[in-house]
Amino acid sequence: MSYKVKLESFEGPLDLLLFLIKKEEVDIYNIPIAKITQQYLEYLEIIQLFDLEAASDFILMAATLMRIKAQMLLPKPDFGEEQQDILDPRQELVQRLLEYKRFKDVAEDLGGKEEVSAKHYGRGSFKFEEEGLGEDFQPGSEVGLFDLVAAFKVIMDQSKKITVHRVLEMNVTLEECIDNVRRALSEKPELSFRELFTSDADKIVLIVTFIAVLELIKTGEVYACQEAPFAEIMLRRIDGAE
Fold first, then answer.
1. Secondary structure E strands in 104-239
2. Structural domain boundaries, residue 42
3. What is the pLDDT, as a whole number, of residue 42?
């Protein structure tokens, strides 16, 4: 049995690259392509677990990153400093990222005005400046999909490792996990994302629980936020949600 989750504001491969660049605090004009490619592939493994419809776009970007990485390993002819910049295989990707970020900033600014009128904080965002990456973050801002994936990746990395392959019958359903999350939030209006997962739980339980959180965020029952960039993710029950 497979689960599919589609968020209305689903973020694409360029969003993941921007997320990794900000997370690693690197210069967008001088991307350490080997490091970013390795991390991108690790996140891609998590994304593919959920069979997201846009997974093919992420795989295409992964191929692009690997091509750039291979090109950078090739010896470069000495054409002078100006020609070297033109030959930088990262240049096209950087331009795509900057252009995409400009459009995204405009869209988020317009969306933020609507949210302010409804007394909601806009999603945390960051802007590129001449010096590199600047930051404009509101405490309590809603987290994005990749923030949740990053937190879940840490949990999966720390979960128990099974060295012997076992064929197990499915022992959990999405509906059960959704009820478990609702029950946890009924006992207290706010809890950390990590509290929903136990280190001794089976991998399938961790995955379906994560999908349950995404579904509750999608339906407007749960709000995920951070007090600072890459801080602990908190889940809050939205009062009045059905």
1. 128-129, 132-133, 141-142, 190-192, 222-226, 234-237
2. 1-138
3. 86
Amino acid 174: pLDDT: 87
CA distance 183 to 189: 10
Side-chain-side CA neighbours of residue 83 (13 Å)? 5
Domain boundary among 120, 138, 156: 138
pTM: 0.58
Q: Which tokens sit at 149? A: 């994936």
Q: Does the CA dihedral 196-21-102-44 come out positive or negative? A: negative
pLDDT score recorded for residue 240: 62
How far is the C-alpha of 106 from the C-alpha of 96, rounded, in Å?
A: 16
Is 214 in contact with 7 (CB distance < 8 Å)? yes
- Distances from the Cα of 96 to the Cα of 5, 139, 155, angstroms: 27, 29, 32
Q: What is the mean pLDDT of each run of 10 residues along the chain (242 residues)?
A: 42 86 88 91 80 72 90 72 65 89 78 56 44 52 80 79 50 86 88 86 85 89 85 84 52
Compute CA distances 117 → 8, 60, 194, 221, whole Å: 21, 39, 32, 20
116 plus 146 within the same structural domain: no
